[in-house]
Give the backbone structure.
Amino acid sequence: MLERLQPYQSKLKSGGNIAFLRSKASTQWDDKSLQYSLNAASSFHVDIKEDWVLVTKPRILGPRFAQERLVLLRSPSLDSNTTQLLDAFTEQASLRGLMVENVELFEIVKLKGNNALQDLFASVPYILWLGRTTLDHGASTGFFGTIRSEYPQLRLPYLEFESSAKLDAAYAARSIFKILDATDAQEEQPKDLEYRDVDGKLSIPHKVEVRVEFVSMNLSDLDTALGKTFSSKLETEAIGVVVRTGANVSNIPVGSRVAMLKDGACSTMLRQDSRFVQRLPRSGNDNGHALMPSAYITAYHALHSIARISPGEIVLIHGAGASTGQAAVQMAKRAGAVVYVTINSLEERSIMQKDYSLLNENIFEYGSSRLVAAVIHRISGRGVDVVLNLGSLKSLPDLTETISPMGIVINVSIESSTLIVNPHKQLTISSFSFASLLNSQPQLTSQIFQKVYELIRHDELGPVHGLCKHPISELPKTLPCLKAGSQFSTLIFEIHHEGHVMRLPSKPKPLKLDSAAAYVLCGGLGALGLSLSDAMVESGARHLIFVSRSGAATELQKAHIKKWEDRGCVISDVKCDTTCIAQVQDFVHRAKQNAWNIKGLVQMAMVLRDSPFSTMSYEQWRTGLLPKTLGTWNLHTCLPNNMDFFITVSLISNIVGNGGQAQYAAGNAYQDSIAFYRRSLGMPAVSIGFGVMHDLTNNHMSPTVTEKWLARKPTLLPLKFTEKDFLTTVKAIMRGATSDLEPIPPYIVCGIKNDLETKGPRLRVKYRDQRDSSHGHELEARRHRFSEPLHASGVDSLKVVEFRNWVFIEMKADVSVFDILSSKPLASLAAQIVGNSPLVSSQIAIKALENPSDY
């Protein structure tokens, strides 16, 4: 087989072609249909051989990355010939891409003495991994999340086809090349790296489908309607109700009322990436139309991103009656600024006084000839720090005379005329529109969108006032009423739907567990399990079965068991290794003999064997993975089908891609798949992923130990989650519904928050300081000698991942873990980094590699 590769060696090295590696047993696609489909999909020439396929004339990437593409396809078996070919292709640095059929991820890892997969991740910059929605592929997403964090040079998208669908060769080929194009290595920040084919349509599992209730239109929409712009789409924002969500959307339940950003929002149904969808507060059910996002995003960007206002500064908002103006008034007051406004009508004056508590002396007439003099008189010659213009540009040059030296002028007017000001004023002038912000900075817009709606949900920002709703049928006659700088700068249109009216349900009853039933807690003798057991006993449980390998061994565990037994509970302490099917079957047989009526399971078993994947042994991989995968599967297989709940618990390593925990993250993702699989069979199941829990009642770890652990896991610092939050979540799952009677999804992520901005500037660096403090407790400060290796400073196999990522980000140099942990002096390592960095000239790089002692 390997001999057949030799005639094509020179062609592969020089042309940067895509090679599809096949196994003789592969029956994924018919050869002729695959050849035709690949040719049609990509204009490639396909040469199919017995064991592999050569594809020439690639056109996917630019010249810089023409030899750096790799494609892999997962299949459920592995043979030695395929492994040899995989090793051979890994050595071909010029390969544009590689798709491997009949190669199972965990089978590659399992091969003792073979580091094919580890070498593969370290040697290529791009892998597209193809999978199926079967249970044995369920661990992939968690595993890949960690791999992405450990290998910064590697781009690793994942495309998943439905297991129940017959995979058409033509469609599969088109889908593959769509993902290749969407995740092009030339793009710095790809929007998504995980894709799924659903019902013959390629979709991203981060989408949200919304039934639209309200859309807003402004002056730019009027210009579009009148043909004054090149755009053909009206409006960019809407309010509606979520009807469906993608598999990876966990923070926006179906039925939520949301605000969303999307071009052409005037539609009965919309689909959008979850980054551009935010939940409304419950109070927004009646005034949701007054919470359109563009006003808040524009005001936040102007006052915080650009002006960076601080307490005591004077802010003049020109045209404050507009939606953006009202949002800006709220944000400026919240920041502690002194607010002055201009308004167009008595109604707007009333809004400023009654709703925003502005003094009458701080409110000025929009078009008054004495506007500038009135403002200067009111501020007593001090000068305005920030002028935010939301109206016409005509009066803005005069208003700049009120600004103090080094003041800021921000123009959000849609007018395109040039702003002429006194050149001696020493001003900062900034101009933008919401449309330009959304189109040119979508990531920043998404971040601001999330921040302002966090404030809205916490009642720190309220709705704008004075907006009128119109039926969408009145759009033609209402649109010309738009007026800049006033409450009529935005119009709201209601889209009517046929259907039932949603009503607020009554609160559910407290959790009441069956006192005659038995509940299994696997791995439940840890700190979290003991707290959960206390809560279950308080909720009526009277028979708890603890399943673990070692049983109750500590004084704390024995004290809890005695406490529960004193309350009349039956406690069964069962020693059982859940990864052994025979032991699980023996446990279930014993339960039947003793007439234990098992009605629920909480699977909390875990074994942490942290290590970078590049140095992880097979034993470490197996020890960390099997309790989550095989153990959970054995419990699913052997326990009764009629249980009330089946709950798996884990950290969210598979979501954040926590370095050093590839096998643990893979196991967590597998538990998520088990939950979806059981749901498909009509059985209960929920998988919970949560962040760092700081306040465990039964946690006896010292603060120093906790700090050292957090120093090794800096990505978990912002993921704060309390014991109360955890217990509330688990109780809701056991009850079968949330407090507002929402059904429980099969997968829940807890503890991901973004609330630092709501707490003021001083706390924005809180988690960074925590991380630095943790490192400070662990490392003794001293100067490093360049003649010593890096590990002499305490850089171990886990910290090396962070160091390697830093080197790649700052120097674009890919240095292996083994080089960093080797005994070579720091000076030699630095020379190697310089020699491998594309940021330095070739002469310096060559000199660094040839004479490392000079550095």
